[in-house]
Amino acid sequence: MTNALTTVAAGFGTGLSLIVAIGAQNAFVLRQGIRRDAVLAVVVICALSDAVLIGLGVAGVGAVVVAWPAVLTVVGWTGGAFLLAYGAMAARRVLRPAGALRAEGEAAGSRRRAVLTCLALTWLNPHVYLDTVFLLGSVAADRGPLRWAFGIGAACASLCWFAALGFGARRLGAVLARPAAWRVVDALVAVTMIVLGVTLIAGA
What we know:
80% helix
């Protein structure tokens, strides 16, 4: 039991160290949290997606994917183009602000758009596969019979982080409910998405 708990804690720490770094997912979850727009749906999608990918990595799927490197190339180009487009839209909001942040609720169209965007940012990003399927999968493999305990710890880290980021950011809504402050957030999102998009395409 002690070894299992230690392994879960190791998985939690390793998973958290990979997730906390600023990236496309984190920037998007932060923005949605501040806007109070489809926060629960976005957090659930991110956490469940990571859990599935971590599970695939622990199961050894990474070794199979290596046999078809062209898959990651296609995903890299597609994901890079998507990130560049999203970054351009965020940059446009910086140059042409629509006004103060509104956080009074979420429309059905907005919720649907947020869900689709979140799915794209998660599943069209090769870095997600590298971190979860390959890196975490290889580290978990070293744990032998306890590899699934390691995977559970990593999945719990993902859930805790995205929940804290999404719902914690909601408290910043009042602080950032000014056009100038909101432009700073969009500028951060734009830079993050564009840099990651260029990186993905260059490395594809």
